[in-house]
Design brief:
Elements lengths: L3 H11 L12 H6 L6 H10 L7 E4 L7 H14 L5 E5 L4 H12 L3 E3 L2 H9 L12 E5 H6 L1 H5 L5 E4 L14 H9 L5 E4 L8 H11 L7 H8 L5 H11 L3 E2 L14 E8 L3 H14 L12 H14 L1 H19 L8 H6 L5 H6 L12 H23 L4 H13 L9 E4 L3 H12 L7 E4 L6 H13 L10 H15 L3 E4 L14 E4 L6 H9 L10 E8 L3 H13 L11 H6 L3 H14 L3 H18 L2 H11 L3 H33 L4 E3 L6 E4 L14 E4 L8 E2 L5 H12 L5 E5 L18 E13 L2 E12 L4 E2 L1 H8 L3 E6 L9 H60 L4 H47 L2 E14 L1
Parallel strand pairs: 1-6, 1-7, 2-4, 2-5, 3-4, 5-6, 8-13, 9-11, 9-12, 10-11, 12-13, 16-17, 18-23
Antiparallel strand pairs: 14-15, 15-16, 18-22, 19-20, 19-23, 20-21
Length: 949
């Protein structure tokens, strides 16, 4: 067991603040993370703020390499540094996934801010809902744009923007969301995440980089002048060098540690019977009517989309929706207000309605009812009731029968796990599938997964799960999160089939299942990719079979499937949807809208084919092979170089992780003597039997604790855990002075041969904490100094080794003489500060060079305009010289004089603009120079007399 002496050293080592370019900086986050990190993820996280002058980074790893984890590491580090004004902006359908990943994998408290929660906060008296330091704020693009003024008022420590290619057209003034967010977050450090930073034009890359750092390039004109045509090697290499400090990209083929199985497509065709086909036609024609009373004008296109999706899902789903519409119109006819907003009622069945609505803009306004409308109302109610009666009369759906056939085929392979996840977009269809499968050979081990899970079986699974994991960190106390975990665990351990709504496509890991069934196929490719990604992910051992259903009587359904399958390549291959294709659609909701418009306006197969051909043609134009090749050349490094670097980083990261975990458990073992029992020699876990503190923190329950990434059946112990924080603070506050320590070199494991010449000698030893503040960052250095009583000085590394030896005795001593070490401490301090100055000088030089380039960029366009005027004057002189008449010659001379006057004015403005640019550059550089000055403080951690035996 280590002594207080070593425990104190370890406690300070565990809480040190490291420079921005040190791999040790992320060690604490590595210890805390409940995820097996790959070296490329650590590398990307370190890249993001390698320079203390960095304003952020564009992390552009290929799909499937874990950009969310990379950002999570940076977020965890910022949180540990108590920089807690943090914002995550993400597509609305990824908000829950981010929330869950940050909480489960990094233990970071988060809150999703949306219209309802925002308005609730305002009503509760919180006039700035974004301004919180106890939780990371997560919101959608649309919500962030709508609340831009709120964002602008806050001094953000970090903003993470996911799927950042949505902002790539920020250089166009017409892109309102991108420009609004850029201006609102202008001064915030940012991490942009996208697999497709360059889609159609180099100007998109300019746009994304300008969001991170406006001084990385000049203005749009100068960028276009210099870099738009990369036909010269020098121009190409200049652009690549300027991108290097801000853009980071790793390829899947470079990451040898990550392997994926394949996706295998399976298509089951079906033909609806006559009654199903008639219902489809009747409702489709109803939705095309010019005047619909059941759907609010302000939401018509969105509600039409929902009804079409429910119609395609099952007769049971559309029956419920038709019933809702008829009931609302009957209330309208009776001049009563409907009980709730139509969207609220539809969302009870179609759970993704709110998320889709955030990005869906209907522009029509409500109109008051006229007498004619009242007459039309009665007719519409009658029609809806007749449609609903037809739907209710249909008890069996052809697609349901096709599902049973597909399961029989898929389960016929004995080498594959007998588990399937079936996705539907409707809770009523979910109930129908439960009844269908209950009367089939697959009636054992069925579990439902949706946004509420109030059914009896789910409640029973949840209660049993809570009881089984009582007293462990698996139980979070959030019923929603714990219900999700309980259902997934049941599916893994006992279940055969999970029937899930879209709630199951986010934030859960189903790598133990290898059969994905799209009972209802979303029109949004990003949602399809999310679904398949629950199973087809890192850690999957089997090829994943993806089942889809095709309606042979519906031309539009067939073309949607063809588009998703052939163009987006979602259902087969090793990685599924390519970066180029998914990046091309920008917003999946916009893509859904385009498809919805085709369903709405096209009646004949010829019209459907023509419109889908047009949509596919537009996609072909967006997916540009030339640009793909340019991106590869600009943003990718040589494979051999990257692979070798990642190998080294894997070893370094693992070594840091192991060292930090060992130190944490050693300090804990020392501090909890009499309060806890440790279960094994590795001390990976312990049982806390009573509190070591007078006031037991509610966040420090008794029971079993273990380090992350172990069994999970315990409280997860980590650097950020309240118990560890209390222990480290207590140990650091202990005083060690006027003490004699007897070290035993013979018992050291491993052997320390370099210290053997000092056996029998005595001396003084000190551990000093040096803190340096410069360039807006704080760094801690532990200085070890030791000398013998006869004047021999131990090298710092040897002094450090001395402190790690086993201790025979430690007793009071009155003759300690720390002053004899002062000069050694001062020498080490001077060396450290010199190294920091040299390193910061490099950071300063890089930043100054960037600002020089920025200033030159801005001048280029102006100088080009002067050259263009010179050419225009030369042309005008030539024209005047060859003019045949005196009048023409005089007119030519007047034109030359006018152009020369304009040139003189431009030159004057050019010189003034040059001066202004130089002044701005000098001011920025002066600001940085001011931050270079070091502020140092020093504190003695321990000072003892030592004897080596």
């Amino acid at each position: 067991m280590i002594s207080l002496f070593q425990s104190k050293y370890f406690a300070h080592e565990l809480t040190r603040r490291f420079p921005s370019d040190s791999r040790e900086k992320l060690a604490g986050a590595l210890v805390d993370a409940q995820v097996d990190l790959n070296p490329h993820q650590v590398d990307a996280a370190l890249f993001a703020f390698r320079s203390p002058l960095s304003k952020g980074a564009l992390l552009a790893d290929e799909v499937g390499l874990g950009k969310t984890i990379e950002a999570g590491l940076v977020l965890a580090q910022k949180w540990a540094e108590r920089k807690r004004h943090i914002l995550i902006i993400t597509p609305s359908n990824l908000r829950k996934q981010w929330h869950q990943e940050m909480q489960e994998k990094f233990f970071l408290p988060c809150m999703i801010l949306e219209t309802k929660s925002y308005n609730h906060a305002i009503k509760s008296g919180n006039l700035q809902p974004f301004d919180t330091r106890d939780k990371i704020v997560i919101c959608s693009y649309q919500f962030a744009k709508n609340k831009a003024s709120d964002l602008q008022r806050i001094h953000w420590d970090l903003v993470v923007i996911d799927e950042a290619h949505r902002l790539r057209n920020v250089y166009k003034t017409s892109n309102i969301i991108a420009n609004t967010l850029k201006n609102a977050l202008k001064h915030a450090p940012k991490i942009l995440l996208t697999a497709t930073p360059l889609q159609n034009s180099l100007l998109e890359l300019f746009g994304l980089v300008s969001i991170v750092d406006e001084q990385a390039f000049g203005d749009l004109k100068s960028f276009r002048e210099q870099f738009l045509y990369l036909n010269e090697d020098q121009v190409f290499h200049t652009l690549k060098a300027r991108l290097k400090p801000i853009c980071h990209r790793t390829l899947r083929r470079q990451v040898k540690s990550v392997s994926y199985t394949r996706r295998l497509p399976m298509v089951e065709q079906f033909t609806p019977d006559e009654s199903e086909d008639r219902l489809y036609s009747l409702v489709s024609e109803y939705l095309r009517r010019d005047n619909l009373q059941a759907l609010p004008n302000s939401q018509r296109s969105l509600m039409t989309l929902v009804l079409r999706k429910l119609l395609a899902s099952s007769t049971f789903a559309i029956a419920g929706a038709l019933d809702t519409l008829a009931a609302r119109l009957e209330k309208k006819l009776a001049k009563q207000s409907p009980a709730a907003d139509l969207g609220d009622e539809f969302e009870q069945d179609y759970e993704t309605l709110n998320e889709t609505a955030e990005e869906w803009q209907d522009e029509n306004e409500e109109e008051p009812l006229s007498d004619y409308d009242l007459r039309a109302l009665e007719t519409e109610i009658k029609d809806l009731r007749s449609f609903r009666d037809l739907a209710v009369s249909i008890q069996y759906n052809a697609k349901g029968k096709a599902l049973l056939t597909a399961l029989e085929k898929a389960f016929a392979n004995p080498t594959r796990p007998r588990k399937a996840i079936i996705f539907t977009e409707s809770k009523k269809t979910q109930d129908y599938l439960m009844r269908l499968l209950a009367d089939s050979p697959y009636n054992e081990g069925i579990v439902l997964f949706n946004g509420s899970n109030t059914d009896e079986k789910s409640r029973a699974i949840y209660a049993a799960w809570v009881e089984r994991h009582r007293g462990t960190d698996k139980v979070t106390g959030s019923r929603t999160a714990d219900m999700r975990s309980a259902l997934v665990d049941y599916f893994r351990e006992e279940g055969q089939i999970m029937i899930a709504t879209e709630a199951g496509s986010e934030g859960i890991n189903l790598q133990f299942c290898s059969l994905v069934v799209n009972y209802d196929l979303p029109w949004n490719p990003q949602r399809v990719e999310q679904r398949i990604g629950r199973c087809h992910r890192y850690g999957q051992l089997h090829d994943v079979v993806v089942v889809n259903f095709v309606n042979l009587k519906n031309e539009a359904d067939q073309r949607v499937f063809q588009l998703l399958s052939e163009k987006f390549q979602l259902f087969e291959g090793v990685f599924g949807a390519s970066d180029e294709v998914l990046g091309a659609i920008e917003s999946g909701v916009d893509f859904e809208r385009r498809i919805a418009e085709i369903y709405q306006k096209c009646r004949t197969p010829e019209e459907i084919r023509s419109n889908f051909d047009q949509l596919q043609s537009e996609l072909n134009a967006q997916i540009n092979d030339t640009i793909t090749q340019t991106r590869r050349q600009l943003l990718e490094n040589f494979d051999a170089e990257v692979i070798e670097k990642l190998k080294v980083h894997q070893q370094e990261s693992q070594a840091s992780l192991n060292r930090y975990e060992r130190m944490l458990m050693e300090v804990t073992h020392h501090a909890l003597q009499g309060y806890a029992t440790f279960r094994d020699e590795n001390r990976d876990s312990f049982n806390l039997i009573k509190s070591p503190f007078e006031n037991l923190d509610k966040d420090i329950p008794l029971g079993l604790y273990e380090l992350p990434r172990r069994s999970g059946e315990a409280h997860l112990y980590r650097l950020g855990h309240p118990l560890a924080q209390r222990i480290l603070a207590k140990v650091k506050s202990e005083t060690i002075s006027n003490v004699e320590v007897v070290f035993n070199v013979s018992k050291a494991q491993p052997k320390v041969s370099a210290l053997e010449p000092y056996v029998g000698k005595t001396g003084d030893l000190a551990l000093t904490l040096l803190t340096i503040e410069a360039l807006d960052q704080i760094e801690d250095y532990l200085i070890f100094t030791a000398r013998t009583d006869d004047g021999d000085i131990l090298e710092p590394d040897l002094a450090k080794r001395l402190t790690t030896l086993p201790i025979s005795t430690m007793q009071p001593h009155s003759n300690t003489n720390a002053a004899v070490l002062d000069s050694l401490i001062q020498q080490e301090q001077a060396k450290i500060q010199g190294d920091i100055s040299a390193r910061n000088a490099l950071f300063f030089s890089a930043e100054a060079e960037k600002l020089d380039s920025w200033a030159e960029d801005l001048k280029i366009t102006m100088e080009r305009e002067i050259k263009e005027m010179d050419r225009a004057i030369k042309e005008a002189k030539r024209a005047a010289a060859v003019a045949s008449s005196l009048e023409e010659k005089l007119a030519g001379q007047k034109q030359v004089k006018a152009l020369e006057s304009q040139r003189s004015e431009k030159r004057k403005k050019l010189f003034d603009a040059h001066d202004e640019i130089d002044r701005n550059r000098d001011k920025l550089i002066a600001d940085i120079e001011g931050k270079l000055e070091q502020v140092a403080s020093i504190q003695t951690i321990l000072s003892v007399k030592w004897i080596l035996e």
